[in-house]
Amino acid sequence: MFGKEKSQGEITPVISNRSASKDVTTLIGEGCKVEGNFFVPTTTRIDGIIKGDLTGEIGIIIGTKGLVEGNVCAKEVVVYGNVKGNIEADKLELKRGSNINGDLSVNNLHTEIGAIINGTCTMNAKEENIPELETEQDS
Fold this sequence. Notes:
Number of domains: 1
Largest sheet: 9 strands, parallel
Distance between the termini: 65 Å
Helix content: under 10%
Structural class: mainly beta
Number of strands: 15
Radius of gyration: 17 Å
Order of helices and strands: EEEEEEEEEEEEEEE
């Protein structure tokens, strides 16, 4: 707290969506274990354990000690910890040390070296974001 330096393990990520609140307003802290399906309307950080599906209206951050045993769905998802279930997101960031055992369905994916994915990944490309390639017939 006062005069205490942050350890390297303490990370406070920010969801980048401009319409999103930049502060985490809901926290499932380390040591908490909850069961059930959850809907969270705000940016939420998970440092404990959730057994059930987790749906977020804005963003979900799963911390290094966080574990979700269920499906995760939100506009933006950042994973530092573990997910045993499928993830559906517009933007998904998998950080070094993250471990995903499930399928991914995303529009945008950012993966750091050291992230582990055991499952399939489906990229849902939007046509307006795909540049047209010049073919031999066009030349």
